[in-house]
Amino acid sequence: MIENKERRAGIIEILKNSPKAISGGELGKNFGVSRQVIVQDIALLKAKGHLIVSTNRGYKLLIEEGHSRTFKVLHSDNDIARELYAIVDLGAEVKDVFIRHRAYGLIKADLNIKSRRDVDKLIAEIKSGVSSPLKNLTKSYHYHTISANSEEVLDEVEDILRDLGFLVEKH
Predict the structure, then answer these.
(1) CB-side neighbour CA atoms (13 Å) of 46
(2) Is 75 annotated as a binding residue?
(3) What is the CATH code for 67-163?
(4) Nearest-angstrom CA–CA distance, 26 and 20
(5) Apex 46 CA angle, 166 and 18, nearest 5
(6) Whole-angstrom distance, CA of residue 100 vs CA of residue 106
(7) First CA to last CA across the chain, in angstroms?
C-alpha cells in the first residue's frame, strides 16, 4: 500500500498532467483506496496551499505560471487599497483574489491589478456598490496569487504584507 504522503504527491502529479477533471472514485481506484480517503487527501492538499478546484466532474489543479506565490491575508475593507498599493509598488501583479468558503468551496475572481490606477478603479467600484469585497464572505480571510519578475520581488511582497500586519502566517 502506498504511504499517505506518496499518495498525495501522486494525486498532485495526476491532476497536474490531466487536461480534464478527475473524479475522486477514479483517483481512489488508481491508489487502491476509497473515494472518501481521496476526499480527505484533497482537503489536506488544499490546506497546504494547493489550488485544487472541486467540480461536478471531479478535481482540477489550477497551475500557476512563472514566478508566482499565493498569500493568505486578513485585513479590513479600509486596508484594501493599502494592501494592493504595497504590492504593485514593488512591481508585482495581483492576479486574483479567492476564498475557501465552507459551503461553496473555492470562489475566485481574476483581478490582474498591475498599477495604482488599477487599484483606484477597483476601490471606486467597491465604493460605488457595484462590487463587494469577496473577503467579506469569510470573516475577511482571503488569498491572492501574486506574480512578479523574480522570487526576490515575491519575498519583498511577503515581507511588506507581514510588516503591514496583513499576512496570515502558515503553521
Answers:
(1) 19
(2) yes
(3) 3.30.1340.20
(4) 12
(5) 130
(6) 5
(7) 29
Give the pLDDT score at 63: 66
Amino acid letter, 5: K
Q: CA-CA distance, 91 to 113, in Å (whole number)? A: 11
pLDDT of residue 61: 85
Q: What is the mean pLDDT of the chain?
A: 90
Name residues of the chain where pLDDT drops below 50. none
171 is in an annotated binding site: no
Grid cell 492538499 in the structure block, residue: 45
Share of the chain above pLDDT 70, in %: 95
At 58, the amino acid letter reads G
From the number of C-beta atoms within 10 Å of its C-beta (0-12, 13-18, 19+), residue 142 rates as: buried
Span(s) in the chain for CATH 3.30.1340.20 = 67-163
Helices (H) and strands (E) in the chain, counts: 6, 6
**CA R_g for the chain:** 18
Task: Kindly report the pTM of this predicted structure.
Answer: 0.63
Backbone angles phi and psi of 14, in degrees to 5: -65, -45
Ligand-binding annotation for 83, yes or no, is yes
What integer pLDDT is reported at residue 149 of this predicted model? 85
Architecture of domain 4-61: Orthogonal Bundle (1.10)
Amino acid of residue 16: K
